[in-house]
């Protein structure tokens, strides 16, 4: 998996994994959101991420000269071969947890995609150009929800405050670099995530402050997603997501 | 009734302009906390298949509607006034186009 010449493939698949796992998580809200309008809105966001994953996997498949199709990359890999950041795989929790996670990820994607737009890899830059418009909207939505819940009722405030506390330790991983990302940085293909940290902290802190929420403490951090070391939740997502292809191999829609 | 009001956020009427130069048309309604959120839900509920280039949201409360029981006094008096239609008048032959 860590073969040097596959750096680009590994990088592209990792980006696809971030999108697919979060998209799968968000889709769990379908028919379960607090009310109809939000149900549709969340499903739209979920589909944006799944569409983004498809673009990354199609590109990875093309780089591999079709050894694996996009579907095979998505549905026939096991947990240890997935490279998504841990924050993407955490269970949806309550609505406040989902929105707190979404805001943290949207703020990260917002900064990340602006850099990926400048990638010397034309396909990645083109995917970023499409994704960045979606993410502008995602961020607008999740940011408003953080304000609404934080500066809302006692219960909504308490719930989203707790959510940020549970999520904060996963934020450090957003700004670490895996081997393939570091290797691709010299050719300006990948994004230097360490450089996004300050802007992210500023954006997120300002919003939390405005939402009357305290900034959680940095007393613990966890990482490992980019190395395939996942939380216990990851296998459960794959069980559900891959069920059809595992049970009926090669089944087509 | 008070219970219902507590669980439902305000209702908004949604108007979409399908392309430049056309009027905004009423497409439906939805619930939202405020106009800003209604605008976003309108985007997600009514434009996901590229139906529009512009959205108006109006708080349903602000719409003043004519009532069914007013129909007799509102519309019936117009039925015997055909002279209000241009087609009522016969043009002189000398006028070819108007």
CATH topology grouping of the domain at 2-65 in chain B: Ubiquitin-like (UB roll)
Domains of chain A (count): 1
Termini of chain B, distance in Å?
Answer: 58 Å
Which range does the strand content of chain B fall in? 15-25%
Quote the average pLDDT of chain B.
88
The major beta sheet of chain B can be summarized as: 3 strands, antiparallel
Could you estimate the helical fraction of the residues of chain B in percent? 10-25%
Beta-strand content bin of chain A = under 5%
Task: Indicate the radius of gyration of chain A in whole angstroms.
Answer: 18 Å
What does it look like?
- The complex is a heterodimer of chains A (253) and B (98).
- Chain A is 63% helix and 0% strand.
- With 253 residues, chain A is mainly alpha-helical.
- Chain A has one domain (4-247): Ferritin, CATH 1.20.1260.
- The longest helix of chain A is centred in the middle third of the chain and has 29 residues, at 122-150.
- Chain B is α+β, with helices and mostly antiparallel strands and 98 residues long.
- Chain B has a domain at 2-65: Ubiquitin-like (UB roll).
- Chain B has three helices and three strands, in the order H-E-E-H-E-H.
- Chain B has helices at 2-7, 35-46, 71-74, and strands at residues 11-17, 24-31, 54-59.
- Chain B has a three-stranded antiparallel sheet, with helices on one face.
- The radius of gyration of chain B is 21 Å and the shape is flat.
- Classes of the chains: A mainly alpha (253), B alpha+beta (98).
- The interface between A and B is medium-sized, with 12 and 13 residues.
């Amino acid at each position: 998996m860590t073969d040097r010449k596959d750096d680009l493939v590994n990088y592209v698949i990792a980006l696809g994994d971030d999108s697919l796992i979060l998209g799968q998580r968000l889709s769990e809200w379908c028919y379960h959101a607090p009310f109809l309008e939000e149900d549709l809105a969340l499903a739209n966001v979920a589909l944006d991420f799944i569409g983004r994953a498809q673009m990354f996997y199609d590109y990875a498949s093309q780089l591999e000269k079709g050894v694996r199709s996009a579907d095979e990359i998505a549905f026939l890999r096991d947990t240890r071969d997935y490279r998504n950041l841990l924050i993407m795989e955490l269970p949806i929790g309550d609505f406040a947890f989902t929105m707190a996670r979404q805001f943290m990820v949207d703020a990260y994607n917002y900064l990340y995609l602006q850099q990926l737009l400048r990638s010397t890899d034309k396909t990645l830059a083109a995917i970023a150009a499409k994704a960045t418009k979606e993410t502008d909207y995602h961020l607008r939505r999740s940011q408003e929800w953080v304000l609404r819940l934080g500066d809302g009722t006692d219960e909504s405030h308490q719930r989203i405050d707790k959510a940020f506390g549970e999520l904060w330790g996963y934020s450090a991983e957003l700004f670490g670099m895996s081997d393939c990302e570091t290797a691709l940085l010299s050719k300006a293909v990948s994004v230097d995530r360490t450089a996004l940290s300050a802007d992210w902290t500023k954006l997120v802190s300002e919003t939390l402050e405005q939402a009357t929420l305290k900034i959680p403490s940095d007393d613990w951090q966890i990482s490992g997603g980019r190395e395939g070391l996942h939380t216990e939740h990851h296998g459960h997502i794959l069980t559900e997501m891959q069920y059809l292809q595992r049970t009926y191999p090669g089944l087509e829609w | 009734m008070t219970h219902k009001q507590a669980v439902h956020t305000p209702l908004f009427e949604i108007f979409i302009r399908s392309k430049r130069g056309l009027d905004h048309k009423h497409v439906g309604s939805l619930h939202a906390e405020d106009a800003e959120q209604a605008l976003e839900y309108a985007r997600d509920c009514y434009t996901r298949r590229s139906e529009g280039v512009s959205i108006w949201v109006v708080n349903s409360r602000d719409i003043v509607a004519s009532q069914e029981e007013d129909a007799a006094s509102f519309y019936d008096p117009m039925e015997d006034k055909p002279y209000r239609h241009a087609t009522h008048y016969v043009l002189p032959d000398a006028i070819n186009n108007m």
